[in-house]
């Protein structure tokens, strides 16, 4: 189906999905379902190629969730499928960055813990869960998800200095937790 869409677009017929997009913007669930069925094979292939192995379904789902949120702003400057694939590419990049940050965090905590002690992702998750919620949120937003302190401040609806202090306290709490774990 994707090659049919590409062929129609190259023939100058415009975006073959335009009327479905317009209907979906107006709230037509059937039109959106059609858009999903028409584009899902291409989105799935891209997420399989660019995303982390084993999470393709989650990446595809996240792509469509982001598309739904942004659909009203779609301006038909590019074909719908190209727009959707750009969203899928960003979803995959975000996933890879998040996983890389999680691995780096686990590596840093492992180095702090010292030789002979290895922390798995479950241990890291447990350490993060033990943090006070405000500190955990600030730490995860900035250190795991990679948001700037300014972006985290917007998300948390607090001053940037508050985010900085919460992250610093979270780091200290994590260091203390790892030390206590090693002492046992």
Structure in words:
- The chain has 184 residues and is mainly alpha-helical.
- 78% of the residues lie in helices and 0% in strands.
- The protein has 9 helices and no strands.
- The protein has helices at 2-13, 18-25, 29-50, 56-70, 80-113, 121-129, 133-144, 149-156, 160-183.
- Helix 3 (29-50) crosses helix 4 (56-70) and helix 4 (56-70) packs across helix 5.
- The longest helix has 34 residues, at 80-113.
- It is elongated, with a radius of gyration of 22 Å.
- The N and C termini lie far apart (60 Å).
- Mean pLDDT is 82; it is low at 1-12.
Record the SSE blueprint.
Elements (H helix, E strand, L loop, with lengths): L1 H12 L4 H8 L3 H22 L5 H15 L9 H34 L7 H9 L3 H12 L4 H8 L3 H24 L1
Range of strand content? under 5%
Q: What fraction, in percent, of the residue positions are helical?
A: over 70%
Q: What structural class do you assign from the helix and strand content? A: mainly alpha
| Mass-distribution shape | elongated
N-to-C order of helices and strands:
HHHHHHHHH
Average residue pLDDT:
82
Rg from alpha-carbon coordinates: 22 Å
Model regions low in confidence, pLDDT < 50 over at least 5 residues? 1-12
List the keywords.
disordered N terminus; elongated; 9 helices; mainly alpha
Compact description:
With 184 residues, the protein is mainly α. It contains nine helices and no strands.
